[in-house]
Amino acid sequence: MVKELDEKSDSLPDHVGWRLWQASRAWQAEFAAAMRADGHAWFTDARAGLLGHIPRGGTRQSALIERSAVSKQAVQQLLDGLEAEGVIERLPDPRDGRGKLVRYTRKGLDALRDGDRIKLQIERGYIDRIGERRFAALVDALRALDAGQGDLLETTARIRGETSESK
Amino acid sequence: MVKELDEKSDSLPDHVGWRLWQASRAWQAEFAAAMRADGHAWFTDARAGLLGHIPRGGTRQSALIERSAVSKQAVQQLLDGLEAEGVIERLPDPRDGRGKLVRYTRKGLDALRDGDRIKLQIERGYIDRIGERRFAALVDALRALDAGQGDLLETTARIRGETSESK
DNA sequence: TCCGTATAGTCAAGATACTTGACGATATTC
DNA sequence: GAATATCGTCAAGTATCTTGACTATACGGA
């Protein structure tokens, strides 16, 4: 139980990226645990990442592909899983024979509702921990950061190599 | 190119967790791209997550396992990869015949140095985007959040189910 | 109207990053 | 010394992503 070397003092990271990563992981772990405790056993981080891009009113699968920062095949596989779990369903798009509409099932909407509640609970916990002022500053800074950036999509699209140079 | 439905207006997420996640992903994507551009082709997010827990002076593999929020087998596999890449090396622990010491090779230390530089560049970019004041508030809030929490490890350890109830 | 091309989605195969389970070797404790 | 715990490894399986190849539908002219 005795720490023989005080490695804590030896340059473990403390920069924005690391902090953001830790904070993000902590939030996700807390949220996912609460969701599963609420009976949504199908909930995973990867699925959450995708669901975040599906508005309550539904969307086209192709729109989803544009927004999320992964390949269309990845989106498809995640949707396959969510569909199998009964969280979302896919319908043919009446306006485009090629397209599919993705929308929530009752089960999915229930999960969203629970998610909203949990989200607020976590926020309350954060405010308790760091104070309302700091919390507001945090959100403000994150929003500014997001707005100031061409956002993740461009970056990843660029990295991935412009599927179609629609110049 | 015409947006037929204005889905933007339909409840896409805007809460701390989502913002943190997006910000974290953006940071990592930027960092990883810069690292690879600098010749560290072996660099991946998962490896970065582990390296962040290895102090420059090295550490015991078991200490690494305690700190990182994944299973010991995952840590091992990541170390296997890093060792194969020549980034770290493992030596027997002279003080405990069971243990192994993990430390950086020259190549690893070079990568850390480059990483530090890139990290500062990214920070500079952030400050340009949102201003020094907001940036300071961001870091301050993240630090407070981290300090206020029993941190990620307890949570994940609890979730995973207490390998050994060392009561 | 028909043809070329772009777009939406699917199928298949493989890589990476994890997981749990089982195990051998060394320490520790009594 | 013997029971027990810890450290690391080996093996096998799962989730999440990737690239490549393909089908079906839509669209924009000649």
UniProtKB/TrEMBL annotation, chains A, B:
Spans traversing the lipid bilayer: none
Domain HTH marR-type per the UniProt entry, residue ranges: 36-135
Protein name: MarR family transcriptional regulator
PANTHER family: HTH-TYPE TRANSCRIPTIONAL REPRESSOR YETL, TRANSCRIPTIONAL REGULATOR, MARR FAMILY
Highest taxon of source: Bacteria
GO biological process: response to stress
SMART domains hit by this protein: HTH_MARR (SM00347)
GO molecular function terms attached to this record: DNA-binding transcription factor activity
Gene3D superfamilies, sorted: Winged helix-like DNA-binding domain superfamily/Winged helix DNA-binding domain (1.10.10.10)
Native source species: Mesorhizobium hawassense
